[in-house]
Amino acid sequence: MRPHTRTARTTRTLRTTGAVSCAVLLTAAALAGCNRGSEGGAAAKGKVGIDMPRTDTDFWTAYQGYVKKGVGKGTVDALPLSNSQNDVSKLVTNVQAFSDQGAKAVVMAPQDTGAIASTLENLEEKDVPVVSVDTRPDKGKVYMVVRADNRAYGRKSCEYLGEKLGGKGRVAELQGDLSSINGRDRSQAFASCMKKKYPKIKVHELPTNWDGKEASGKLQSLLAQHRDLDGIYMQAGGAFLQPTLALLEQKKLLKKAGEKGHIAIISNDGIPEELDAIRKGKIDATLSQPADLYAKYALEYARDALDGKKFKPGPTDHKSKIIKLKNGLEDQLPAPLVTKENVDDKGLWANQMDKKK
Questions:
Q1: Higher-confidence residue: 203 or 31?
Q2: Cα–Cα dist 123/305, whole Å
Q3: What confidence score (pLDDT) does residue 10 get?
Q4: What is the reported pLDDT for 81?
Q5: pTM to 2 decimals?
Q6: What 3-state DSSP class applies to 6?
Q7: What's the rounded Cα separation, in Å, for the pair 2 and 160?
Q8: How far apart are CA 133 and CA 139, in angstroms?
Q9: What is the SS3 assignment for 199?
């Protein structure tokens, strides 16, 4: 009888254990199902370190706001945000701090894309995936780069000014930092387009290191030699818009669009101040760099990296295109041209910000 009793007890124990196990599995499955449908699905998989490249321009201030909103919604479980203030040495230090705090993924926007390679290599050795926003590191593995096609910025800006000036005249180009892939892409594409399509337009290239004061100083020197300026291309409205307009007003050269002597101006960023300047006729156009989408997809790709998801080159479900890089993948988000015809489009992120204000 004892053997039979042991068997019965064993059977009852197995049944009880099995029932409990099933209940636990079902509960876990139910929770997982809920998480898959929520923005915070990967939060429990690990902390994410997020570095702000700078907050001294309206564009990056807006980006930071969108990042904080996404973190608040639970898209990822983030460590306290850091700010490298356009200094690659600070970025390296901040990323090391993330690593020391156990970050399982990192979101960054290195402004010097050539000096971050060793940091990326260290993160790869630790199996920490990296999402790079707005800039594409020259070397070092990245899980995903989230940025718009910056060569398209330069080309579209060239074509807009070229048509506006009828293919001839004098243009000042306020370049960004040429150590940055964005500065190089925009500058090279602008120069190539001008040389090919509008050879009668004289372009004065003014490197600025994304610095508004430097841009204003160099533009002032140019105007002292060539007051007959016909157009300006600003590679970053967040940094260059206010100092440029202030200088033109001081020199009595700020004429409204349509007035005699108006200097045609196109910018890149799409901040609220640029849209307001378009409405007032102070500038003619900008290319709207999607600060909201940069933040949204940076956080989502960080979450995907924690989930171990893999992506392939090709079109996405959010009207962008993923391309293959030597060191990873890049999701090229759309950046529409904004003029007086569509400046009030409710879909532009800057107009959404205005509504919140």
A1: 203
A2: 13
A3: 38
A4: 98
A5: 0.79
A6: helix
A7: 93
A8: 15
A9: coil
